[in-house]
Amino acid sequence: MYKVYDISMPIYHGMVTYKNKPEKQPNIRVVQDFNQTSAYESRIDMDMHTGTHVDSPLHMLPNGGTMESIPIERLVGPCRVLDLTEAQDKITRADLERFAPKKGDFLLLKTRNSLTDDFGSGFVFLAGDGAEYLAEAGVRGVGIDAPGVERDQSGHPTHKALFGVDSVIVEGLRLGEVPEGNYFMVIAPIKVLETEAAPARALLFSGLTVESE
Question: Which segment of the chain is annotated as a signal peptide (predicted)?
């Protein structure tokens, strides 16, 4: 038997957003209810970076690719969850070296952000030197349990280091119930066109046997 972990953030008005900025809050309203018609419908207005989402290079690079430039195959496959809950402010190269990242790894960074539902504006992030180390290792993707992979770094070196080696960035994961280890990952961003990001549902499977061709 395999176990499924839903590592997506629930989306609702009042949820944790980037630095808890009020303008980042999603707004959901009822368009029609059963007092008006025979069908109930709602409408949502939200930032593409709300909750669990995938960034495309255009987010930080003027000539970067939009969401269509990221094949879905790159978001499906083996991954590793790294326990970095001891990091208090940021994840550095020194924090990551013991995990010996390898070329082709997709790494999900579990921090103290996942231990609370309200980590506020002081969330743990991936520092520039940590991102450079992962880029040098040739990882295919990095996910983190924060609303942003970086927080207050001038020039956005973390995004740029990873995008520079065509590494995928996933933000807003929830990893509190997930032990460190190896998993099969499915991250499915909604299929919007010509955007710099897209909200996603993210799942991890443990004990899943995948037959090779």
Answer: none
